[in-house]
């Protein structure tokens, strides 16, 4: 039986393990803290298949100074990290050129179009189908001018077959009565869904995979050594142990960059830290995820409460979290959800693994074909995990790919 090591027990690593086990492969997941906190636990829970627009859109750079001027605004760059961020920012700016933008949209649409084909069977096989709430999402606006600014993006989504229904403020309140009068416009996207609780999903999936024969090794991977002629590959742990397998999948989220570098490959990957507050007793009821487009935050009704989240903070992997951001998002939400009780919430921060072109890295290492990359999903890691797992397992098993993998290749960073 073939043996594959997957580094990372986040949603991407576990979904990959699922597809490999289904393909008859022996799988060992290695994680320094398999049950510990990670982006896959605290995210907003959105299965955001409609999100085919990258972060870098034409003209976005003009908005950056305004965002940065607000210390608790939607975008922050920690000053000491700014010099290290320059190559990433230059590439981000290039991704916003019209020709790049079109290429990236089509690559995001290609992967998102497959999401339910891969996610629904995965959930069903692990008896997790009830974790998914297929109720669509509502994007809301405070005024016509802001709504009009997004017209092009909605048109692009329509052109990619995404169902988009514009609604008035009153119609938005019929869909979500908790919304205040300041909402004057909305867009309902029925294909979006959300999970009841991302942490429960990951925990249950991990337990179900263990029951199906998955091995989990606890350890910090600090080295990867490919064998001769791309055959066996060994993974070195910080306690001195080595584990050898036929292939290794790097699914270590925002920490994947260090592992890529030890293999001699190049990537531009940053931690884009996000924040949220979850209110167990919010005093308001939402049925589906609501996206507050102008203010760049979302509210998702989860089993554990109403989660208000957003923000994009670039400060590297080691900067302490600034939970004032979580609190600021909660205060902002209270402006639009008038009944929201903002006492007693639980603050959280997590590292999104962000590439400058908003595309994940999926594919074999050009130098070492026994190593396969599966990271860099940014805002869409929960959404794209099942499909990434499917694509990675096809690479490992030598099956033809269901999607053209060229746009996700790590070689784009050379
Ligand atoms: C605030 C916020 C909201 C979000 N909302 C959404 C959303 O609504 N929808 C959506 O699709 N996505 C969302 N995301 C993004 C999504 O959460 C991430 O893209 C996704 O969880 C990444 O999963 P992952 O498995 O790649 O990484 P992670 O979940 O970070 O897991 C990586 C794992 O690798 C392990 N690891 C790392 N390095 C090593 C090493 N050297 N050795 C051993 N183990 C290692 C870590 O311990 C960790 O367990 C959000 C993210 C944030 C922060």
Description:
- There is one protein chain.
- The chain has 414 residues and is of the alpha/beta class.
- It has a domain of 212 residues: FAD/NAD(P)-binding domain, CATH 3.50.50.60.
- The protein is built from 13 helices and 21 strands.
- The strands form 4 sheets. Strands 4, 6, 7, 8, 15, 16, 17, 18 and 19 form a 9-stranded mixed β-sheet that branches. It has a 6-stranded mixed β-sheet with strand order 10-2-1-14-21-20, sandwiched between helices.
- The two termini are 35 Å apart.
- The model has no long low-confidence stretch (mean pLDDT 95).
- Bound molecules: flavin-adenine dinucleotide.
What name goes with the CATH superfamily of the domain at 1-49 and 98-131 and 196-266 and 357-414?
A: FAD/NAD(P)-binding domain
Shape: globular
CATH topology of the domain at 1-49 and 98-131 and 196-266 and 357-414: FAD/NAD(P)-binding domain
Number of helices: 13
| Unreliable segments of 5+ consecutive residues | none
What distance lies between the first and last C-alpha atoms, to the nearest angstrom? Answer: 35 Å
Radius of gyration: 21 Å
SS-based structural class? Answer: alpha/beta
Largest sheet: 9 strands, mixed
In round numbers, the mean pLDDT is 95
Number of strands: 21
Examine the secondary-structure arrangement and name the CATH architecture of the domain at 1-49 and 98-131 and 196-266 and 357-414: 3-Layer(bba) Sandwich
Share of β-strand residues: 25-35%
Q: Helical content, roughly?
A: 25-40%
The bound ligands are:
flavin-adenine dinucleotide
What is the name of the CATH class of the domain at 1-49 and 98-131 and 196-266 and 357-414? Answer: Alpha Beta
């Amino acid at each position: 039986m073939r043996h594959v090591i997957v580094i990372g027990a986040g949603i991407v690593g576990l979904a990959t393990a699922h597809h490999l086990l289904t393909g008859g492969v022996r799988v060992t997941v290695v994680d320094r803290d398999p049950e510990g906190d990670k982006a896959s636990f605290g995210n907003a829970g959105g299965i955001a298949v409609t999100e085919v627009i990258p972060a870098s859109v034409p003209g976005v750079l003009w908005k950056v100074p305004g965002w940065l001027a607000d210390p608790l605004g939607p975008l922050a760059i920690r000053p000491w990290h700014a010099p290290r961020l320059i190559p990433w920012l230059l590439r981000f700016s290039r991704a916003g050129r019209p020709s790049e933008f079109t290429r990236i949209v089509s690559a995001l649409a290609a992967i998102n179009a497959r999401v339910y084909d891969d996610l629904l069977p995965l959930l069903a096989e692990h008896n997790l189908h009830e974790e998914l709430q297929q109720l669509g999402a509502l994007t809301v606006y405070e005024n016509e001018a802001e709504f009009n600014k997004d017209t092009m993006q909605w048109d692009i989504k329509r052109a990619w077959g995404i169902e988009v229904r514009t609604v008035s403020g009153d119609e938005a309140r019929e869909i979500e009565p908790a919304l205040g009068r300041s909402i004057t416009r909305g867009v309902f996207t029925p294909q979006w869904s959300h999970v009841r609780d991302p942490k429960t999903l990951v925990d249950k999936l991990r337990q179900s995979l263990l029951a199906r024969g998955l091995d989990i090794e606890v350890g910090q991977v600090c080295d990867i050594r490919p064998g001769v002629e791309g055959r066996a590959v060994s993974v070195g742990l910080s306690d001195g142990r080595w584990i050898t397998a036929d292939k290794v999948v790097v699914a270590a989220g925002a920490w994947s960059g260090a592992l890529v570098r030890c293999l001699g490959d190049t990537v531009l990957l940053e931690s884009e830290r996000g924040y949220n507050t979850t209110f167990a007793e919010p005093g308001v009821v939402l049925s589906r995820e609501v996206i507050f487009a102008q203010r760049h935050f979302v509210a998702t009704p989860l089993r554990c409460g109403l989660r208000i989240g957003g923000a994009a903070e670039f400060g590297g992997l080691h900067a302490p979290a600034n939970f004032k951001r979580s609190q600021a998002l909660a205060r902002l939400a209270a402006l639009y959800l008038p009944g929201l009780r903002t006492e007693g919430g639980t603050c959280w921060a997590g590292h999104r693994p962000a590439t400058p072109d908003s595309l994940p890295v999926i594919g074999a290492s050009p130098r070492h074909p026994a190593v396969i990359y599966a990271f860099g999903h940014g805002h869409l890691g929960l959404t794209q995990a099942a499909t990434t797992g499917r694509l990675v397992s096809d690479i490992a098993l030598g099956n033809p790919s269901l999607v053209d993998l060229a746009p996700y290749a790590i070689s784009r960073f050379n």
